[in-house]
Design a protein that fits this description.
The complex is a heterodimer. Chain A is α/β, with parallel strands linked by helices. Chain A contains eight helices and ten strands. Chain A has one domain: Rossmann fold, CATH 3.40.50.300. In chain A, strand 4 and strand 5 form a beta hairpin. Chain A starts with 6 loop residues before the first strand and ends in a 10-residue tail after the last helix. Chain B has 15 helices and 13 strands. The chains are: A alpha/beta, B alpha+beta.
């Protein structure tokens, strides 16, 4: 891992256009920004603002129509499917709104999955997954299946899965969207803790309150960046809510 | 290797999760594999039986009968039934032929018989034969105790019997059977000799036979009807010449004109091998057809279940891709799954086919022996079916778009 402060993500005049029923939809229409290592950034916007498309492009699940996206010094546009898969495996830890855990696998099995595709030997895989689950406070739930866990616990498993491969960044898409407010608060505290440990976190959300708690936020509207600055300011809340330590 | 094990583990856990569905899907595959194993076991069993039967006859031996011993394909059975019986006189006439060494004229009842003593009885499974001294060389009999039938037994019409070892064991356990009396259909016979143990071939004992002199046989069973003539040529190389002589002689004795067909059948090792090969080829063709059909049905079932599985697990596929699975990882996962599914059906089918063959052997005394190659062949065929029919669903899975896939419910 390189030191905090180096540029991790560089996005320049990024466009992503779709053709739907003969009409061109400009989901991203010239987006530019940079994110340095160790930052915790919220990407906010109404639905249809392009934030999901941006998240897919930043997550290497989708490639831009034009423009540049550099992740950890590597140009992402023009990579093959296999190269994108390996980039996702090494550089990105996904946290989804609906958790996206495999229902038949245990917590441990779910967390080991990214390491399977990295070719890590089984014994080592297990040790790493146990460590990651311990880091999110689930040491005593290793062999539970998702349907035996609460929503908050499921999201913790998902976060452990995102962390286990020591990626360059966590990419969280509405991580509290399916949780009640108390549990959501726990998850945000966990992110905050991870941020303080030096992890780079991108949090996609439509909730201004959540964005306000991030040190930095980027607001998207109609495929354009309309604001980029301190979380509270971008979120448009008069008083900046304190970020929990 | 590690990756393959991981994939296999994933596949097995999925199959465990859908046991009933997996079993139903596999029916075609099971039938295909079971057919190959069962049919090939019967073919193999027949081959073993024939080769031991003929090895027992000894080199240079051949047989003449009214009825075909084995027949495949259409035959006019009524015409065969109208053939005149072979008689002892016709058999005796063959002794003078230049390339004939022994002539064993044999008579068999239609059903197995039972031998009794005042204390004990055998089961109804004794093959009784009315014969002459030449039975011994023509059938490769080895005397363990006493003697075989001799010419004077025939001439004097003695009621004596030469028995297999199992009969001696059953009727006279712990005693010397020689000189003892046994009864056949109530008629007393004196045991004069016991054959050396031959053991069992495919569960069927070769030591449950009894030979009595021809005249005594006719007294018990009536005038002979089903004469079988076993001949031994002067040497194994002389068999074709001996057959020609026998055929010519019998045709003359039975008054056939030049354009008539033979009204009797003959078998040597060569002719039976040829017949066996014809049979084996027919069985193989029939098996091949049934098996191909069953595997096609089974394979379509597998393709269907795998397509359902891909649809059901679209989200899972998307998640796996997001976490770094390459397209070939997904492809391999679903291929290994379909091969595992198919192969487990194949294994089950092998067990079913084997059980079928062995129980037919035990219950109906059908010759059967499971050849290893048939087991390997059916496993190979089912694995191949799983592979071929798994390609399309696996490709569909591997071509999914991760974002779209994760969005499905």
């Amino acid at each position: 891992m390189s030191a905090v402060g180096e540029p991790l993500i560089v996005v320049e005049s990024l466009h992503r256009h779709y053709t739907v029923g003969g009409e061109v939809v400009r989901a991203l229409d010239g987006v530019s920004f940079g994110i340095t290592r160790g930052e915790w950034v919220a990407i906010v916007g109404q639905s249809g603002s392009g934030k999901s498309t941006l998240m897919n492009v930043l997550g290497c699940l989708d490639t831009p129509t034009s423009g540049t996206y550099r992740l950890n010094g590597a140009d992402v546009q023009g990579l093959t499917d296999d190269q994108l898969a390996s980039l996702r495996n090494k550089e990105i830890g996904f946290v989804f709104q609906t958790f996206q855990l495999l229902p038949r696998a245990t917590a441990l099995g779910n967390v080991m999955l990214p390491l399977v595709y990295r070719g890590v030997p089984k014994r080592q895989r297990r040790a790493m997954a146990e460590e990651a689950l311990a880091a999110v406070g689930l040491t005593n739930r290793l062999n539970h299946r998702p349907n035996e866990l609460s929503g908050g616990q499921r999201q913790r498993v998902a976060i452990a899965r995102a962390l286990v491969g020591q990626p360059s960044m966590l990419l969280a898409d509405e991580p509290t969207g399916n949780l009640d407010s108390a549990t959501g608060e726990e998850i945000i505290r966990l992110f905050s803790e991870l941020h303080h440990r030096g992890h780079t976190i991108l949090l996609v959300t439509h909730e201004p309150k959540l964005a306000a708690r991030c040190p930095r936020a980027i607001r998207l509207m109609d495929g354009h960046v309309v604001a980029d600055g301190a979380g509270a300011a971008v979120a448009g809340l008069g008083t900046s809510a304190p970020v929990p330590a | 290797m590690n990756a393959l094990l991981d994939t296999l583990e994933m596949a097995l856990s999925t199959l465990r999760g859908n046991v009933l569905r997996s079993i139903l899907t596999l029916l075609g595959i099971v039938i295909g594999a079971a057919t190959v194993v069962a049919m090939m076991s019967f073919t193999e069993g027949l081959k073993v039986k024939l080769s031991t039967d003929f090895a027992q006859l000894g080199a240079g031996a051949f047989q003449v009968q009214k009825w075909p011993a084995m027949s495949f394909g259409p035959r006019d059975w009524r015409k065969i039934e109208r053939r005149p019986d072979l008689t002892r006189e016709q058999g005796e006439a063959l002794r003078d032929l230049p390339h004939i060494q022994f002539v064993s004229i044999e008579e068999y009842p239609h059903q197995p018989e039972k031998l009794t003593t005042p204390e004990r009885a055998t089961k109804q499974n004794i093959d009784v034969c009315g014969g002459l001294p030449d039975y011994e060389p023509a059938n490769g009999v080895t005397v363990a105790e006493g003697r075989f039938l001799v010419e004077t037994d025939i001439q004097l019409g003695r009621r004596v019997v030469f028995i297999g070892m199992d009969i001696a064991d059953q009727l006279f356990p712990g005693e010397d059977a020689l000189g003892q009396e046994v009864r056949l259909r109530g008629v007393p016979f004196e045991v004069v000799g016991i054959a050396q143990r031959k053991g069992a071939v495919m569960g069927r004992s070769k030591d449950t036979f009894a030979v009595i002199p021809w005249p005594a046989y006719e007294r018990v069973f009536g005038k002979s009807r089903n004469t079988n003539i076993a001949l031994v040529a002067t040497s194994p190389e002389d068999v074709p010449k001996a057959i020609d002589e026998v055929v010519a002689k019998l045709r003359r004795l039975r008054g056939l004109s030049a354009q008539d067909e033979n009204d009797f059948d003959y078998y040597s090792n060569d002719t039976s091998a040829e017949m066996f090969n014809n049979l084996a080829a027919m069985v193989a063709a029939a098996t091949g057809a049934i098996c191909a059909l069953a595997l096609l049905v089974g394979g379509i079932g597998i393709m269907n279940i795998m397509l359902v599985s891909v649809t059901e697990r679209t989200r899972e596929i998307g998640v796996r891709m997001a976490l770094g699975a390459r397209r070939r990882h997904i492809l391999a996962q679903f291929l290994v799954e379909s091969v595992t599914l198919s192969l487990s059906g194949g294994l089950f089918g092998v067990l079913v086919g084997g059980a079928l063959a062995l129980s037919a052997r035990e219950l109906f005394e059908v010759p059967a022996q499971i050849p290893l190659w048939a087991v390997l062949l059916s496993l190979g065929l089912t694995a191949t079916a799983g592979m071929l029919f798994g390609i399309y669903p696996a490709q569909r899975a591997s071509k999914l778009d991760p974002v779209e896939a994760m969005r499905t419910e």
